[in-house]
Amino acid sequence: MGRYTRGVDAGGILAEVKSLVDSRLDELLPGESVEPTPLHQAMRYACLPGGKRLRPALCLASAEAVGGSRLDALDAACALEMIHTFSLVHDDLPALDDDTLRRGRPSCHVQFGEALAILAGDALFALAFRTLAACSDEAPICAEAVLTAAEASGSAGLVGGEVLDVLSEGKEVGAEGVRMIHERKTAALIAASCKLGGLLGGGSEGQTRALFDFGRTLGLAFQIADDVLNETSTADVLGKAAGSDRSRDKATFPSVLGVQQSQERARQEVEAALAILSSRDLDSEKLKVLANHCVKRAS
Ligand code: FPP
Ligand code: MG
């Protein structure tokens, strides 16, 4: 198992997290030869080799920021990645964004058909909660982890955000309206990732609260940067559709503020996120590097 190196850049941190998380996901996911095999193949296809693993990286770095070990938070980090991956499988479906490319290859429903993609997503969601229910030796911590992920996923989180996202197509919702979408659709799970890292790393209530607030602010910055990349980059670089927000007339920050002001807003949100950490004496080089990467990344 690899070790983080001092002063490492975002690419180094993410590569190391990816190897740790991918090998644990490989253990947690049912094998491809286990019946029903097409279901398990679709679940594994969606999760492995996967994307940037940013949520797990934030979760593990948060555990370390409160003095814990990243291994304490590894199962929770994998569960968060399952929820994230499941949400992308469903987001790409024809009924939602109707995107055929994800993580540089055909979307799950293109590869396996819609029925299996829907069901593989459902099974990943269930496996995520099964994993969270056993993510610590201490039952109250498992319960808190399940509660946190459920709140981030439901009508006040991912589902609610996705509903607002779909309903806002073709409408003028303004910067505040877009912020409300992004806080639910994206920031809620990033906030939960940081909070769960703090919780499993043994942080105090104040520390886990600060990590949650940090993640929520950073999550907004992350989604603004995502909007900008959709507008300015290419499918080859992103490994997913580019220009699709504009063609579907989505409510995004660039559509309201333009690209330059959106980039500025994303940078301000990162500064605000890092100030939350400093105010709680939670300065962590890794969290700082990852936070800056959220708005500087190319994909
Ligand atoms: C991608 O946004 C989509 C999301 C961040 C969330 C999608 C949420 C759902 C489908 C609901 C999931 C259901 C549960 C129960 C958790 P995007 O379309 O802006 O980004 P993209 O360009 O990567 O597709
Ligand atoms: Mg989408």
- H/E order of the elements? HHHHEEHHHHHHHHHHH
Helical region count?
15
Q: Beta-strand level of the residues, as a percent range? A: under 5%
The major sheet is characterized as: 2 strands, antiparallel
Please give the alpha-carbon distance between the first and last residues.
27 Å
**Within the largest sheet, what's the order of strands?**
1-2
Overall 3D form: globular
Give a count of the beta strands, DSSP E runs of length 2 or more.
2
Structural class: mainly alpha
What ligand molecules are bound, each kind once?
A: farnesyl diphosphate, magnesium ion
Q: What is the C-alpha radius of gyration, as a whole number of Å?
A: 18 Å
- Report low-confidence residues grouped into runs of 5 or more: 1-5
For the residues shown, what is the average pLDDT? 96
Helix content: over 70%
Structure description:
The protein has 299 residues and is mainly α. Helix content is 70%, strand content 1%. It contains 15 helices and 2 strands. It has helices at residues 10-28, 37-47, 54-65, 74-91, 108-112, 114-132, 139-153, 158-167, 174-200, 205-232, 235-238, 244-247, 253-257, 259-279, 285-296; strands at residues 101-102, 105-106. The chain has a two-stranded antiparallel ribbon with strand order 1-2. Strand 1 and strand 2 (105-106) form a beta hairpin. The longest helix has 28 residues, at 205-232. It starts with 9 loop residues before the first helix and ends with a helix. The model is unreliable at 1-5 (pLDDT under 50). Farnesyl diphosphate (FPP) binds at residues 87, 90-91, 96-97, 99, 125, 153, 158-159, 162, 185-186, 230, 240.
